[in-house]
Amino acid sequence: MKRRIIVSVICIFIMLMTGCNVSVNVPSSSGVSDTSIVEHKVGDYSQKMTDDTAKQFGDELSAFEITAEQRKLAANNEAGYPELDAGRGNPNWINTKVRSAFTRLMDFANEECRLAMENKDMAGHGNKDGISERFDNFMNEEDEIDSFLLDAVSHCEKELGMDRDDLLFEFSNGIIGDYYPDPSRCLENTEKILNEYITSTLFNGKTIEGGTDIFPTEGGSAAMCYVFHSLNHNHVLKQGDKIAIGTPIFTPYLEIPDVNDYGLVSVDITSDKEHNWDIDPDELDKLRNKDIKAFFLVNPSNPASHALSSQTIEILKDVMNDNPDLIILTDDVYGTFVPGFESVYSAIPHNTILVYSFSKLYGVTGWRIGLIAMNSDNVVDRLISELPDEDKKDLEKEYCIAVSEPDKLKFIDRLTADSRSIGLYHTSGLSTPSQIFMDIMALSHTTYEEDEYIKTANAIINERYCALMNALGLKADTANDNARYYALIDINALICDKYGEDFAKWREDNISDIDFLNDLAKKKGVVLMYGPGFDAPKGNVRISLANLNTEDYVQIASRIMELLDEYYEEFEDEEGKKAA
Predict the structure, then answer these.
(1) For residues 379 and 237, what is the distance between their CA atoms, to the nearest angstrom?
(2) CATH code of the domain covering residue 170
(3) CA–CA dist 401, 295 (Å, integer)
(4) In terms of domains, do 434 and 533 share one?
(5) Which pLDDT score is estimated for 259?
(6) What is the dihedral of CA 529, 534, 538, 539, to 10 degrees?
(7) C-alpha to C-alpha distances, 434 to 171, 270, 556, nearest whole angstrom
(8) Is the pLDDT confidence value at 214 over 50?
(9) Residue 404 clears pLDDT 70, i.e. is over it
């Protein structure tokens, strides 16, 4: 009997209400002629399940909910294999140096507080006077962690021009966490330290004209929520506006506009394997249409794990000539896994909002720490200044409870105020211990000329990637723009290469992509992610190279081939019966 077949693909673009695909031709006045743009509202890519799978998973679930269900299947798999979950994006490594340094700095800060007042478990607040001398006496130059902290403080003093006492007092007060952040958006020295870090890791050392303002946040996801909310709240993105989304892309980010009821319309800007997951110039031409207000992308991409080429970034710069009001929102969390990576922000700072998280590199997904960065001279501030007087007055009435000159409040500070519903602006900002931890991570990279930790992380990822591809019999992509944090594997192509097109067609007719993943979990104990859930082509699966050991990826490949062999036996049996 034929197996259950699942209809459609899973929740790729989730915006506001169910709608149908429509094609519209961009008017010639937009600077683009005869370019078809596909728009989507919620429901265009909704997974409508039927039969056995619908009973198992429910009527409509996102790719991540489906993977959660498959984890339950894998835990008690029929083969009795150890579960191998390559669906998770968090790494299975951590940086011990930064954690030890954080603990050591906390010890110093506790001692500073005890000097002021000590009564059993109770202490006072530290004192700035003489803090540098006390810090030097507290630290042991012969200890590796103490030596790093001493070097980091000296680096800030010599290279970033910071006052040593001011820095150490900010560190000690911040790590204790007894004060609200002041300034509320970002601690003063923290902003300088984080600027140096993203310049080195994301801008390829390029200095940004005008300077960069930073808002530390509770991870990259919170950053995205804040940005969407504030763009909407400040009338920069309105209901019915078109935003372009670079696909394939991390599914949950696409759910933000729907959950928050923004009523935005999405436009596909598609990358594909034919172009090595870079964006074709014809796709970028869609952005010349002034009806498109924003362009959202993950760079390097998720799940394809490739960075945009320098040629693509140059085309994006040219697009700004036709659409100067376009807002680019880029999530660069995987940038450190590409040597010489350069963010779209560093090339087009006026139009770009940058989101970054330390989570993947340093193994801190549970800390929930990231940042939003914007150029001091940016398109959003300009668009707000050009709003109708009535809109500006309404916004000034809201923000006047937080600041004395609301008309001069920059968008990144509006983000900060909006994150606490404006009225609690004075208590906004990421917790100060989290900000100090970000400082330590950043300084572990910038204090010394060579960063062995990043080299090690990249080497681990590359080893796992090559082991997986070799075990699957596939050619490894050795391009420098391949972050290798994820591998997007075309199961259909794999089947064609090993078994031939007849079996590939039989599998496609009888075993859906989700059924394949269900069987892989239930029978072989392997959990992977459903590729079309990221708007990847049908037949693709995403394998995380971050959260398992190298030998586990060889096992994953072996179990995939084992399951396909079982399918092939079923296919041959059916073919034999037909022949008889």
Answers:
(1) 13
(2) 1.10.20.110
(3) 32
(4) no
(5) 53
(6) -20
(7) 11, 36, 36
(8) yes
(9) yes
Cα gap 88→552, rounded to integer Å:
14
Structure tokens of 49?
């399940």
- Residue 155: inside a domain: yes
* Average pLDDT for the chain: 88
C-beta neighbour count of 459 within 10 angstroms: 10
- Residue with token string 């990576």: 341
Q: Do the Cβ atoms of 373 and 212 come closer than 8 Å?
A: yes
**Whole-angstrom Cα distance, residue 257 to residue 353?**
17
Number of domains in the chain: 3
Closest to 175 measured CA to CA, from 222, 258, 261, 113: 113
Within 8 A by CB and 6+ apart from 63, the residues are: 10, 11, 251, 529, 530, 533, 534
Could you report how far apart the first and last alpha carbons of the chain are, in Å?
17
Q: Give the whole-angstrom CA distance, residue 131 versus residue 432.
A: 19
Residue type at 385 in one-letter notation: S
149 and 195 inside one domain: no
- CA–CA separation, 71 and 67 (whole Å): 6
Residue type, 171: F
pLDDT category at 21 given cuts 50, 70, 90 is: very low
- pLDDT on residue 450: 94
Residues 120 and 205 in one domain: no
Residue at 371 is within a domain:
yes
Domain hosting 460: range is 62-89+452-579
62-72 tens-digit pLDDT: 678 888 999 99
Task: Report the pLDDT averaged over residues 107-122.
Answer: 96
**Band (394; pLDDT cuts 50, 70, 90):** very high
The token duo for 124 is 């006072």
Q: Among 37, 38, 43, 39, which residue's Cα sits nearest to residue 19?
A: 43
Verify that 198 and 333 share a domain, yes or no: yes
pLDDT (0 to 100) of residue 66 = 85
- The three-state (H, E, C) secondary structure of 426-480, written as one string: HHCCCCHHHHHHHHHHHHHHHCCCCCHHHHHHHHHHHHHHHHHHHHHCCCCCCCC
pLDDT > 70? residue 34 = no
The per-residue pLDDT for 59 is 41
Largest CA distance in the chain: 94
pLDDT digits over 484-527, tens only?
999 999 999 999 999 999 999 999 999 999 999 999 999 999 99
Q: What is the pLDDT of residue 482?
A: 97
| Preceding omega of 181 cis (within 30 degrees of 0) | no
Work out the pLDDT band at 61, boundaries 50, 70, 90: low
> 107: which DSSP letter?
H
Return the structure tokens found at 147: 């030596």
Residue 295 pairs with which residues in a beta bridge?
A: 244, 328
Instruction: Please write down the HEC assignment for all residues of 306-356.
Output: ECCCHHHHHHHHHHHHHCCCCEEEEECCCHHHCCCCCCHHHHCHHHEEEEE
CA 231, chain centre distance (Å) = 19
